[in-house]
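On clarity, I found the account of how folds are encoded harder to follow than it need be. Since the whole study asks how a given chain folds, the encoding of that fold should be made plain. For illustration, here is how one protein appears when written out as sequence plus structure tokens:

:::
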Amino acid sequence: MQGSISTTVVVDDAAMTGYGHTTMLEMTWRSGDPLAVVLRLTAQPDHPALPRGEWAVLRDFLRYGISTATGDGMVRIAPGTGDQVQLSLRGDGRPYAFCIPSAVLLSFLNETDAIVPAGSEASDAVLDALIERLLES
């Protein structure tokens, strides 16, 4: 079964963008590469000095990060205060840290599981696609 899931959420960015701007996080998952989720950070309206970037992260890391700190290097996920999940993304520019509602992340992950259940995605072709995607980052 082929499919993709995508959701966009306005993030609590602790004033990263400044007055009059909104930070958006888009999460995209494809059944052809079921281990990875692409995170895309943008600001509206767009400006070169505002948050932007794209990161690939393991779907399981997002799931684990809801209850336990996980990740290393460019992407870190951890439980936040209340019903929030904190994401820390590091790219070419400065690091970005923000929170999103855990319910939004859980809903997104549940939608991906309905297409490719967690634990059933690790064929050789899928692992090759993940390695290729991670090397692009």
About this structure: Strands lie at 4-10, 22-30, 36-44, 53-58, 70-72, 75-79, 84-89, 96-101. Residues 102-115 form the longest helix (14 residues).
